[in-house]
Design goal:
mainly alpha, membrane, MetI-like fold, transmembrane, 554 residues
Length: 554
């Protein structure tokens, strides 16, 4: 196998990543104008207003919570800070829809909170007002407490990278600690905070499980309802195009933000920040501020899911659930391996042949990161269903054989969707490892008779072994949790843990939905703990660089 063949294979991978996005756009643009008018005059204004409101709430909330908690655990010492600096990242292990199941069970009218309230006060159902969790505000809360770790991890890495000199100069000029933070530290960390908030926003517009469960009408739910409830493929494709445009706009803003600004570095002389100890009330207030997101985002939902699962009468060791886990693990494993192989080919092409073509190659491979799973699913389903119908009609007309759904009825279409969706995650994780390898290693390898494939197998992969394993793990867990593309594309006889949890919750069987949900959370904890270990083990500069790529991927 020659190096040129590896480069061509990299282009093939990118074509597979871009194809569903292009297909979704073409399906929408080729739709009937009457359908476009119907969409524009009826559902589009409502979906746009709801999605924008949700995006604004989640974006601002995650930026505030993530940056404040990151500053407190990085700069100060107070009771429990060592535990909290790791615990603050744990909510990232939860899929947002799993968080919604836990809090709905807890806060609904028959749940333990309202039941206890009525028992203590003696009130009847109509004697008091209680916030409705199944609402736009409830969906925003679920997404915020799950997604703020994006900002927290990136902001914490940025704060650790900053030199104390600028902060100390502000203090000597009479600025209080709060004003010094606002005027000096926060502006230097702005690119990291903005990047984390935009990642949270991208996840928000891609979310389906939470908004569908809370009956909040967004673009994501509209695509699914148009496809399955109304059977209107054209309307689904057109809504997918609208969501695709919005997602690409946000991705462009995120890339432009990183292009114009950089996280402030340590400078020529790096002085570590002397961490003062907050004593008395100040220390306990700081502890409470950092503890609240952990309680809301991890401790309470784990307790609720655990109690629900124990009372559900279901066992993970039953044949049915072992089948769900086997399906999920098989699907995630195959998708992770193929995605990482594709990422390695693209990364090798970009490293060995730098230039404009390689830059476009990387951009094309990363487009799936900016596109919700429902859009990719529609982009794959429309042309593949047409191809299946064409083949079936040809075989029946000429040979009297019904072929059925050869492609759309298989798991390989799901795998292709995952590869397109999560290629950026694998590529960023792989590149973060290769970025530490000096370029002259390639020249040394070639001079020792290791060209092309041998250079990749004997030099690049051994050096980037840890990054490759990290990429496999990130993609594996992302596929395990992915819901909208899985719901649209999965065969009827192939159920996964995510689909099972969603279906049980949709039928209001929340206690039973807790069982597969807990398994998904368990899988999600692994990459989160790896990220926390990365922060604690590396130097501040390396920590910021590695986390920037890892969080941008995940």
């Amino acid at each position: 196998m020659s190096e040129r063949l590896l480069h061509r294979l990299a282009w093939v991978v990118v074509v597979f990543c871009v194809a569903p996005i292009v297909a979704a756009a073409l399906a929408a643009l080729s739709g009937d104008l009457e359908t476009w008018r119907e969409v524009l005059s009826t559902v589009l204004p409502r979906y746009t207003a709801t999605t924008l409101t949700l995006v604004a709430i989640v974006g601002i909330s995650t930026a505030v919570i993530g940056s404040v908690t990151a500053w407190l655990v990085t700069v100060y010492r107070f009771p429990g800070v060592r535990i909290l600096e790791v615990a603050l990242a744990l909510p990232l292990a939860f899929p947002a829809y799993v968080m919604a199941y836990a809090y709905t069970h807890m806060l609904d009218h028959p749940g333990p909170v309202q039941t206890t309230l009525r028992a203590v006060t003696g009130w009847g159902p109509r004697d008091y007002w209680f916030p409705e969790v199944r609402s736009l505000g409830g969906a925003a809360l679920m997404l915020t407490i799950v997604l703020y770790p994006y900002v927290y991890l990136l902001a914490r890495a940025s704060f650790r990278q900053q030199s104390a000199n600028a902060f100390l100069v502000a203090r000597t000029l009479g600025r209080s600690p709060l004003k010094a933070f606002w005027r000096v530290a926060l502006p230097m960390a702005r690119p990291a905070i903005a990047g984390g908030a935009l990642l949270a926003v991208m996840e928000t517009i891609a979310d389906f499980g939470t908004v569908a469960f809370f009956n909040v009408q967004t673009f994501a739910t509209g695509i699914y309802q148009a496809w399955f409830s109304l059977g209107d493929r054209a309307a689904a494709a057109q809504l997918a195009l609208c969501l695709l445009s919005f997602a690409l706009l946000l991705a462009g803003l995120e890339r432009a933000s990183r292009g114009r600004a950089r996280t402030a570095g340590r400078g020529a002389r790096f002085e570590t920040m002397e961490r003062p100890t907050l004593r008395g009330a100040a220390g306990w207030i700081a502890c409470a501020i950092c503890l609240l997101p952990v309680l809301l985002g991890f401790v309470i939902p784990v307790i609720m899911l655990g109690s629900m699962a124990m009372g559900s009468g279901q066992s993970l060791l039953s044949e049915r659930y072992l089948g769900f886990m086997a399906n999920s693990v098989t699907l995630a494993g195959v998708a992770a391996v193929l995605t990482v192989i594709g990422a390695v080919l693209i990364g090798f092409r970009a490293r060995t042949s730098p230039g404009r073509a390689s830059r476009w190659l990387v951009i094309g491979a990363g487009l799936g990161y900016a596109v919700p799973g429902g859009v990719i699913a529609v982009g794959l389903m429309v042309p593949m269903a047409a191809l299946d119908n064409t083949v079936d009609a040809f075989m029946r007309a000429n040979f009297g054989i019904r072929t059925g759904l050869l492609i759309t009825g298989s798991i390989w279409l799901m795998v292709l969707a995952y590869v397109a969706r999560f290629m950026a995650a694998a590529l960023n994780a792989y590149d973060s490892g290769m970025a530490t390898v000096p370029r002259h290693f390639d020249a040394i390898g070639r001079s020792l008779g290791q060209p092309g494939p041998k250079l990749l197998m004997r030099v690049h992969l051994p050096v980037a072994r840890t990054s490759v394993l990290t990429a496999l793990l990130i993609v594996f867990v992302d596929v395990m949790k992915e819901l909208p593309a899985t719901l649209i594309l999965h065969p009827f006889n192939f159920q996964t843990l995510a689909v099972q949890a969603h279906r049980l919750a949709a039928d209001e069987r929340l206690a039973e939905a807790a069982v597969p949900s807990l398994v998904l959370v368990g899988f999600g904890l692994v990459p989160v703990l790896i990220l926390c270990r990365t922060i604690g083990r590396d130097s501040p500069g390396r920590s910021a660089a590695k986390l920037g790529t890892a969080i941008s991927a995940g």
